[in-house]
Amino acid sequence: MALTKLGIRQFRNLHHVDFEPSEDLNLITGQNASGKTSLLEAIYFLGRARSFRTHRFDRIVENGQQELSVFAQQKLESGQKVSFGVKKAAKTVQIRINEQKITKVAELVKNLPLQLIHPNSHQLLEEGPRYRRQFLDWGVFHVEHHFYPSWHRYQVALKQRNMALRQSSRKELIQIWDKELIEAGMLLHDMRSRYVSELQALLHDYIEPLLGQLDISIQYQPGWAKDLAFEEALLQGIDRDRDKGFTGVGPQRADIVVKVSGVLATERISRGQQKILVTCLLLAQAALYNNKTAKKCILLIDDVAAELDPDNRYKLMQVLQGMEVQMFITAIEQGTLLPMRDFSSTSKMFHVEHGKLTDVV
After folding, report:
1. Which CATH topology does 121-292 take?
2. Domain 1-113+295-361: top CATH class
3. Is this model's pTM higher than 0.90 or not?
4. Is there a contact between 43 and 3 (Cβ–Cβ < 8 Å)?
5. Is the pLDDT of residue 342 over 70?
6. What are the counts of helices (DSSP H) followed by strands (DSSP E) for the chain?
7. What's the pLDDT tens digit per position in 132-176?
8. Where does 302-341 have alpha helices with state H?
9. How many of the other CB atoms lie within 10 Å of CB of 316?
10. Gap between the terminal Cα atoms of the chain
11. Burial of 121 by CB count in 10 Å (0-12 exposed, 13-18 middle, 19+ buried)?
């Protein structure tokens, strides 16, 4: 699947942008603050109904404007065309797919799968488990049809159990929710565990060309002690949960641990290698989506190559071009990434200056 038309209105400094991207590689050049990252941000917003840079609406809407919108046409592998549109004001958001109003963002995410690689992607390794759960659940959501219903079911049961805990209910009233929590939680656990195993099997294909012969492992932590069943962990933690007013174990605490030769990646390899490793994880995740669904996600890659030396930039571009997916890549200059002779006949290059986008012939 690929975006064939894009329209952006009043998004940061992109007042009125219309363009027809390549279904292959789209290289977007421009100086810092020109609007090239904002263009990727607008595409991301179209697929997630939120920004990857801020939660504040006033930061993404053009100065002096009250709303913004992003819309696009997508061509599926079958040749069918699908239209998307997201319009946002300060307190409202409207989502449409094929002119039909959509109330759940999950429906938008499912139909427009985007994978983002940007300079802060290293947070996946360095920050808390929330980032790694988001990474994990993006992947599972897109390849397991039962994931979202199970996730929603679990969240409802968890909310009710936590409410009972905060109200200092008797154990019997709290544990009314345990059966539902365990059933939904184990469904999530099984899907996540299976997904991590599949991702691990594919990861080497990206590690080897970019990092060489490193022994990388991904270990899944379910959110409770591995030597216990989830039911046992809930029973053992009931008194602690009552004291604290929330459920302390379960899939909401899940994490993944990335190790190099048995040692945490953040302690074993350099910061530069960590950034490349995260890129490998994200590319492997995109490839697993492609393999499992027979569809192709869209890659958004923001200025990552600027942090790499020429040799690693070349290796990265070789890997990317072999993925055969639609890509939007930003760079200050075209030569930062690859010479013109390496562009395919279907690739396109655009230049952004002061929020204006022009085709580069």
Report:
1. Glutathione S-transferase Yfyf (Class Pi); Chain A, domain 2 (1.20.1050)
2. alpha beta
3. yes
4. yes
5. no
6. 13, 15
7. 999 999 999 999 999 999 999 999 999 999 999 998 778 888 999
8. 310-321
9. 24
10. 25
11. buried
